[in-house]
Amino acid sequence: MSLFHSNASNGLVVLGGNSNPELLTEIAQRLDVKAADVICSRFPEGEIHVQIRENIRGKDVFIVQSICASPNDSLMELLILMDAARRASAKRITAVLPFFGYARQDRKDKPRVPITAKLIANLLTHAGANRVLTMDLHAGQIQGFFDIPVDHLYSISTVGDYVVKKNLNNLVVVSPDIGGVRMARAYAKLLEAPLAIVDKRREDATHTHVMNIIGSVQDKNVVIIDDIISTAGSLVEAAKALKNAGALDIYAAIVHPVLAGPAIERLRDSVIKELIVTNSIPLGEEKRIDKIKQLSVAPLLAEAIKRIHQNESVSSLFSKVGVEA
After folding, report:
1. Hey, what domains does the chain have and what are their CATH numbers?
2. Helix 298-309 with 156-165: angle, nearest 10 deg
3. CA quadruple 195, 201, 203, 204: dihedral positive or negative?
4. What 3-state class would DSSP assign to 49?
5. Are 255 and 277 in contact (CB under 8 A)?
6. Which member of 200, 293, 306, 320 is catalytic?
7. Cα–Cα distance between 67 and 99 in angstroms, integer?
8. Nearest in space to 59 (alpha carbons), one of 15, 21, 112, 20
9. 200 is catalytic
10. pLDDT tens digit string along 7-48?
11. Distance (Å, rounded) from C-alpha 129 to C-alpha 110?
12. Phi, psi of 186 (to 5 degrees)
């Protein structure tokens, strides 16, 4: 059960469910408010019970909920929280999704499969969202699945700064596949480093085979850039191929740490020196190993929430990395 307390005197209300309470609390602290008083629990048979226990009539409500860990439960909590806020006469409801679950199902790439990311967009809209604030979508076109405003943030300002401060010499930025080149290129520009690409073939949802490395990594330190790490199979395979190609120290900077199944064991046994992630998804104690460094995106999300609440531009948050909001 999550239970929070708040002061909404300035018209801004921040609340959330059980998926990422630590991030919610940190965002609220950055905004100098308390997270709203919410009960989000379960009935004995497992149904979700929600109650917002303070007046939010006419308020600007931001619901912070990552669709992660138990994604179906997290999604249902979010939808029910939005319905509760809408029925409580909130002036505006913004769904704040540090991690947008189901984003990898963004197209029909096989016969008779759904486009689940579009379904999620429809559910959020029909549940009462007036706008969406999210971060590092797996596929940028998901913004187009919505008929409401979407603010898409990039964590490069947080993760990139950390990598810059490491002062790594002879650095090469590596994209683990062709689809991640745009994201890796932004990091390469920030770090003033060349770009390399791992050409791989996906055998199934959890296994890949590296075919080739495009670019030179011989006698270079490497940082692999990606948006999601799930079972870590692709990452560990790419790191092994880079090491065999003559790379020195290998780092990975990956925004959303799903870290499912054998991921932790694979990382512990891998040639990766450090995995840099954000707290868009919380790390349980069993996932807090020495190789993993978790950075907070609460300052970025809090600043975006403040600007949205005050009807200010969010696009200026992107000027540093040369991408458009």
Report:
1. 12-154+298-318 (3.40.50.2020), 156-295 (3.40.50.2020)
2. 140
3. positive
4. strand
5. yes
6. 200
7. 6
8. 15
9. yes
10. 445 799 999 999 999 999 999 999 999 999 999 999 999 999
11. 30
12. -65, -40
